[in-house]
């Protein structure tokens, strides 16, 4: 299990955290930028692409909140 370095961790927090998608991978996965560095999450529930900001809860993107203009 990843180690949490901040008050809010996108892996084990009870709140959703906004993060920016760095890269979309095969199999409904993506790499996002976090304060602790890159982290892999699932984007299976949303249509997200590089540059999008998504809300993540328990390593699952649950909403796209911002798209690059």
TrEMBL record:
Domain of life: Bacteria
Gene3D superfamilies referenced in this protein's UniProt entry, alphabetically: 2.30.30.140
Cited InterPro entries: Hydrogenase_HupF/HypC
Pfam families: HupF_HypC
Sequence similarity: Belongs to the HupF/HypC family.
Protein known as: Hydrogenase assembly protein HupF
Biological source species: Micromonospora craterilacus
């Amino acid at each position: 299990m990843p180690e949490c370095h901040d008050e809010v961790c996108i892996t084990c927090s009870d709140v959703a955290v906004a993060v920016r998608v760095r890269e979309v991978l095969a199999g409904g996965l993506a790499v996002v930028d976090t304060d602790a560095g890159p982290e892999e999450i699932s984007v299976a529930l949303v249509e997200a692409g590089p540059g999008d900001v998504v809300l993540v809860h328990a390593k699952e993107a649950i909403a796209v909140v911002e798209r690059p203009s």
